[in-house]
Structure prediction request, 208 residues.
Amino acid sequence: MKHRSSSHRQLPPTDTLDGVPGANTLRVVRDPGVVPDWFGLRVLLLNATYEPLTALPARRAVVLMTCGKADTVHEDPLAPVVHSAERSVQLPSVIRLRTFVRVPYHARVPMTRAALMHRDGNRCAYCGAKAETIDHVVPRSRGGEHSWENCVACCASCNHKKADRLLGELGWTLRAALVPPKGRHWRLLATLQELHPTWLPYLGEGAA
Prediction:
């Protein structure tokens, strides 16, 4: 599993939030010599029922909180503070909507590289080493489909050794059955390469 990077970049002296009452007074308070990449941060948005909805840009998360539409669930102590004359807001890692919103349910989770890596725990489906790529169990050159049931996380070594051969030809076996993941949170995992540690309890076993 890959967690959010702590990389930093230089920001302009003041960072404002457009479209928020008093936005021209909102700015980031920064420790000398430590300038977090605040525009690059993402915040997990939960429904009122604590169901994960999406990963918002930190800027949008502060707008929701400032407008009274969301509350902080987990603060991010490594993130900067946004403040105005009325209040100060520690940039959070997880926020929750105050009002429940209905989200259309789609049974089939789209298969992306990020989601596949999450499903397989970032481990090679053949040897268990750290996965670096994706492999088609039945090679596409031999009729294999690009699907949950035929794709696995794979290390570079196994990918090279396997090439376009079948598992039976190599005497290899899979470490786990290939099944499509289920659950609303998987649609979110399908879009995320990196996860903040505080998100994990809300994203289920697939995030581990």
About this structure: The helical segments are 58-66, 113-119, 156-162, 167-170, 185-189, 200-203. The two ends are 6 Å apart (CA to CA).
